[in-house]
Amino acid sequence: MAQDHDDARRDEIAAAITEGRTSLGIELGSTRIKACLIGPDHAPVATGSHAWENQYVDGVWTYSLDAVWAGLQESIATLLSDVEQRYGVRPTTFGALGVSAMMHGYLPFDADGELLVPFRTWRNTSTGRAAAELTDKLGFNIPLRWSIAHLYQAILDHEPHVPQIDFTTTLAGYVHWKLTGRKVLGVGDASGMFPIDPATRGYDATMLAQVDEIVATRRPGLNVEALLPEVLPAGADAGRLTEEGAALLDPTGALQAGIPLCPPEGDAGTGMVATNSVAPRTGNVSAGTSIFAMVVLEKPLARVHHELDVVTTPAGDLVAMVHCNNGASELNAWAGLFGEFATALGASAAADDVFGALFRAALEGDADGGGLLAYNYLSGEPITGLDAGRPLVVRTPDSRLTLANFMRTQLYSAFGTLSLGMHVLQGEGVAIDAMFAHGGMFRTAGVAQRLLAAAIDAPVAVGETAAEGGAWGIAVLAAYLDAAAEQDLPTYLTERVFAGAAVDTVTPEPADVAGYEQFLDRYRAGLAVERAATEAL
User: Fold this and answer.
1) What's the whole-model pTM score?
2) Where in this chain does the record put each Carbohydrate kinase FGGY N-terminal domain (predicted)?
3) pLDDT value for 466
4) Which of 34, 66, 383, 434 has fewest C-beta within 10 Å?
């Protein structure tokens, strides 16, 4: 019976592929380009990928445009081969297609479509003066990585390419432009180029006028809005794959032109889609090398906060982002050390077993971590005003040093900077119904999830979302093209994509919340110790 069911499912998917009832999502991440094909039920049916790395060239973190297309072509080729191997058919078309990529950065082109300087990614931090001036003048936090900060810094530095700029965009916007001929951008990705007006869901007109005034003192006649891509919400018509675009994705010529594309989006937006966190009062926490939280707002923030970036969902709703440079890396280091200790005792264990044992021990610790203090700062942390980091474990003589307290403190530390940013949101009166958590540290059931709930004093959900992440998220946005006229994006995701999805939600325990607040008081006070360590070591 099971074999019959599998065969029927395979035949059903093969028919959907042949008839073009699938959606393809492509995401260009920082270390991997991934393609994900989904069926009519939004479940992934095939994937393809290509590993790549940024290059540090002449003081700039960059990727070459040749590397962009080589990576895209390999991702598509491996996806098409995966489809053929699994289902015995090779697709020549898809029902819809979408492109997502790392947000922010700087890609300026001249009137002939030639890139004027190498792509400057989000990782570059050479925009300090521009970001500070714009933040001050606009009364809106402009982070270092935003595209407008890069553009204004180029103007401040009198870079020779500035007079030639005809158009500037993001990586997703560039790829979409080459595939369709359309210079457009999804509102979520656009919100990392320039501030968005929540009423119009386009660039903020008042701020555009202010920036033009600022720029005019150094570059008279330059119209910033004319350089930016058109803004589109999720579900809008963003063009179709041209013959030239099809050849760029698939040089074999098998892929046909005419496929409709959804607006290109940023990786933050596709992460929100992949976790069903696009409605007001919802949010998600992503914990990896870095850790960040995104909360969909009901109204604009009352004040400017350097701890918070304000971007939008792919539908244009305002989102506050707390982005922390340091996440789970220090936890990984300690787990590696304990794994070595186990091996030295002749009891070697797999990494997952080590993590599981250590994480479960954390639940037995004192609610405040036993008076211990730790910092996971391998690098600087803008939220706490540190340009560099030194991982630390600090304790007072009367603290209670046990394995349980040590591991509870390490987990608390991983959430420390994040919770400071979340406290700023709470001070603004921002309400959160649930936060969806994803990332490797949540694989041990119920541990990091419970302690994160204490750290942000809000329910935390963990569920079985698509493992393909952002590539799956942009594929879902492509599929949404057919439903946008009937349903808004939050309703579509809840009723048609995530209906019936298994989700485990943990509410914060009062004792944990109180204990975490005691830890956070020590954490704030101990920042002076962390700062002294960066100066002395």
Assistant:
1) 0.88
2) 24-249
3) 45
4) 66
